[in-house]
Design a protein that fits this description.
alpha/beta, Beta-Lactamase, Rossmann fold, Helicase, Ruva Protein, domain 3, 5-stranded antiparallel sheet, 18% strand, Fis family transcriptional regulator, P-loop_NTPase, nucleotide-binding
């Protein structure tokens, strides 16, 4: 608490008044010696400080100040009304040179009493607590948090974009979850953007509610108690508080952590919400969810579709992620045909990489990561059925010696020779003499081959 008044006094360990500030004397209406009745009223009983370690040397008490007589005009005596005030007492360390203290109280433990107009901590300006530098740092942190949330919301919005039937179904499902507050179960492949969808659902449905995101695979009962405390502590302290736990890799959660979670849900069935995320392709150790948690995850299940199933929407999604840059036709074609095994996280990382590599406002194929720009669509007939030696094979047939055929021997040899020269030049760091030595030919012959002369 913060005080705006200067009414304070000092009391020694024996309960004797040592000093009263002038403001306190004025407030009491006392001139000269303090009447015994007032001294007794503003002095806490020393027994209060015995065994009060839990108070950490602080006491708050209601004081009843008796009426006092003060001199008025023309020497008349006026009586003040009795008053009831709140006073705060703080036990100080021994003061060897205590001002205004007599010899008996010097070096003894003192008690500071004060009263006045007290303000709640949240009513005190930040600058009074942290100073101007602290306020600037807090404002900068708030700005960074707001920027991160805005970017996360924009990414989640782009993940929902698209006009294909798959995208429309997915988007309508998420929009419905954003309008109600209930348990949500998200399922998809690794990197599908489930965390961003969970954050979007939470802030759209209950923006003022605290949210804690945890890796459930690491949460045994003890760790869960610690890391979920920002939400659980509020639920325990206030009967009106609500909170949300977002549990990534929910199906890998240890059984004792699940038991503690079930206990919380049963204690606060309407106030604690769970958003669980499960992945279909992870290699983590699966621990089947307990039946109560499985039921909660089926309350509002949402399956996040793969990017490959939304290929018609990828051009729109990628264009929205780039914001200012424009994708070339070749880039759009590659984005539509690439399978995106890393799902949403791979797509966003690729677009971010391409935007950093591009020097202008156009993103070409050459700006994409190597693994993506070198991708080529297979032309093999994967659905072909072949029969050999009474065996039926579904897929491309296995080659046999009779299947051997080259379009051109000279072209094949030239390509192979060029690849060997490239490898030798790379191994020799561009030194032609060293590359020729590694190839077992003369330098002049290597120069002719590099220039295109046979």
């Amino acid at each position: 608490m913060a005080s705006t008044a200067a009414c304070f006094w000092l009391i020694d360990a024996n309960g004797t008044l040592v000093y009263l500030s002038p403001e306190m004397l004025t407030w009491l209406g006392v001139e000269g010696d303090v009447p015994p009745s007032i001294a007794t009223a503003i002095t806490p009983d020393p027994v209060m400080w015995t065994g009060t370690a839990a108070n950490r040397g602080h006491l708050t008490r209601r004081l009843h100040i008796p009426a006092t007589e003060v001199k008025g005009n023309a020497g008349k005596h006026l009586a003040t009304e009795p008053r009831v005030v709140t006073a705060h007492f703080v036990q100080l360390a021994p003061l060897l040179d205590a001002p205004h203290a007599n010899d008996a109280s010097a070096g003894a433990t003192l008690i500071l009493g004060c009263l006045g107009q007290y303000l709640p901590d949240n009513s005190v300006p930040w600058s009074d607590w942290f100073g101007e530098q602290g306020v600037r740092e807090a404002a900068k942190l708030d700005e960074e948090i707001a920027k991160f949330r805005a970017q996360q919301k924009r990414h989640a919005t782009m993940l929902l974009a698209g006009t294909s039937p798959t995208s429309r179904r997915f988007r309508s499902r998420v929009e419905l979850a954003c309008r109600i507050r209930c348990h949500v179960g998200l399922t998809g492949l690794g990197g599908c953007g489930a965390g961003e969808i969970a954050s979007l659902i939470h802030h759209a449905s209950t923006s003022a509610e605290p949210l804690v995101c945890l890796d459930a695979s690491l949460m045994d009962s003890e760790l869960l108690e610690v890391y979920a405390s920002p939400v659980i502590a509020e639920l325990r302290e206030s009967s009106n508080a609500t909170g949300t736990l977002c549990l990534d890799r929910f199906d890998e959660m240890p059984t004792d952590g699940q038991a503690r979670l079930i206990e919380w849900v049963e204690t606060w069935p309407e106030r604690l919400r769970l958003i669980g995320i499960r992945y279909d392709d992870t290699s983590g150790t699966k621990t089947s969810l307990a039946e109560p948690l499985e039921i909660l995850m089926s309350t509002f299940p949402i399956e996040i579709p793969t990017l490959a199933s939304r290929s018609a929407d990828l051009e729109l999604i990628a264009s929205g992620l780039t914001r200012t840059a424009r994708l070339s036709r070749e880039t759009n074609e590659l984005i539509r045909t690439y399978p995106w095994p890393g799902q949403w996280e791979e797509l966003t990382a690729a677009i971010r990489f391409a935007a950093e590599m591009a020097t202008g406002d156009r993103i070409g194929r050459e700006h994409l990561p190597l693994a993506i720009r070198s991708y080529r669509v297979s032309t093999s007939t994967s659905g072909q059925v072949s029969t050999r030696d009474n065996e039926i094979t579904i897929g491309p047939p296995q080659p046999t010696p009779r299947d051997f055929k080259l379009e051109s021997l000279d072209a094949t040899l030239s390509e192979y020779e060029a690849s060997l020269i490239e490898r030798a030049m790379e191994a020799a760091d561009g030194n032609k003499a060293e590359a020729a030595r590694r190839l077992g030919i003369s330098r002049s012959r290597l120069l002719r081959k590099l220039s295109g002369d046979t």
